[in-house]
Design a protein that fits this description.
Layout (H helix, E strand, L loop, with lengths): L12 H5 L27 H42 L4 E2 L6 H4 L7 E9 L5 E8 L2 E11 L7 E9 L17 E8 L18 E2 L4 H8 L5 E4 L4 H9 L13 H6 L16 H44 L1
Parallel strand pairs: 1-2, 3-7, 5-8
Antiparallel strand pairs: 2-4, 2-6, 3-4, 4-5, 6-8
Family: Belongs to the SURF1 family.
InterPro entries: Surf1/Shy1 (IPR002994), Surf1/Surf4 (IPR045214)
Protein name: SURF1-like protein
């Protein structure tokens, strides 16, 4: 018989034989953190940077579109002024020309009359350039105006590649004094990728380098573009007894190309005006990115609301 210490009572046998039981007790400890997601782009540095870029894009593109509107007005006015100058009668040239004034915007596309003798032995060529799917070159020839007058650099026009040899195109070589109607043009501006001029003994250029051509031939650094004049080749044809004239004594543009006569400019303004396309591009980009930004903001708000809903549901499930 087992004796118990004084003060202790013997438990009933039924209680000792009852198995030990655990009871689950609900607590008020709630996890208020959002449900973890494997990809949280909105909280990453990259997503924040992209969101900031998306905020800037509508503003920047709208500003560029507005700037192109101003450029369109400027180019339209420039073309209108050039077309007005084309309607004016040709100017006679002085013996010596101020190159800065002649190459300014004020005289761009101004018609002038020049008299002198072509130095065909100093011809220069710029190209290759394509015309009617044919490879060819622009011909530039110095024009000597006589004693006391400066030599001018005339861009006579385009010839096919097979006529680079002067002996193959006698119709293009007028002899003696001639009078030519030309357009005063601004010299092309050199850019970062402008090819270097050729060696001094080479007449072939990849770029219309007026300054280098003028230094090589002793001409003034002013660009004159010869206007298309079928009568000048006709006079040369008569000198060379070439019986390829039309009824009016002139030759057509097709005949000029066939016999290697430089095809001059037609007296039309050839200034590119693509600013309207740029306006549509930039304003369209501004509208598109604005809609993207609004959609992204709505999506972020919806995601935030769903996160709150998940928190509440999670809290309810553990209470």
């Amino acid at each position: 018989m087992i004796r118990l210490p004084i003060g202790c009572r013997r438990a009933p046998l039924g209680v000792l034989r009852r198995p030990f039981q655990f009871r689950t007790v609900k607590t008020s400890n709630v996890d208020w953190k959002p449900v973890k997601q494997k990809a949280q782009d909105t909280s990453s540095w990259f997503s924040k940077s992209m969101f900031g870029l998306l905020v800037l894009m509508p503003i920047v593109s709208f500003g560029l579109g507005t700037w192109q509107v101003k450029r369109l007005r400027w180019k339209t006015d420039l073309i209108s002024q050039a077309e007005d100058r084309l309607t004016l009668p040709p100017l006679p040239l002085p013996g010596n020309i101020n190159a800065d004034i002649a190459s300014s915007d004020e005289f761009d596309y101004r018609r002038v009359l020049v008299q002198g003798t072509f130095r065909h032995d100093q011809e220069m060529y710029v190209g290759p350039r394509m015309r009617d799917e044919q490879e060819g070159y622009f011909v530039l020839t110095p024009l000597e105006r006589g004693e006391g007058k400066s030599t001018l650099l005339i861009k006579r026009g385009w010839i096919a590649k097979r006529f680079l040899d002067r002996s193959t195109r006698p119709m293009s070589l007028p002899e003696g004094p001639v009078e030519v109607e030309c357009l005063l043009r601004k010299s092309p501006e050199k850019g970062m990728f402008t090819p270097a001029p050729p060696p001094p003994d080479s007449p072939h250029y990849a770029y219309l380098d007026v300054e280098d051509m003028a230094n090589k031939t002793g001409a003034q650094p002013i660009l004159f573009e010869e206007l298309l004049d079928p009568s000048l080749p006709a006079r040369a044809a008569i000198q060379h007894d070439v019986q390829q004239l039309n009824a009016d004594g002139n030759i057509s543009v097709e005949q000029m190309a066939r016999y290697g006569v430089p095809i001059g400019v037609t007296g039309k303004v050839e200034l590119r005006n693509t600013h309207f396309q740029y306006i549509l591009t930039w304003y369209g980009l501004s509208v598109f990115t604005t809609f993207m930004l609004i959609s992204l903001i709505k999506q972020k708000r919806a995601t935030s609301a769903n996160a709150v809903t998940r928190k509440v549901q999670h809290a309810r499930s553990v209470l």
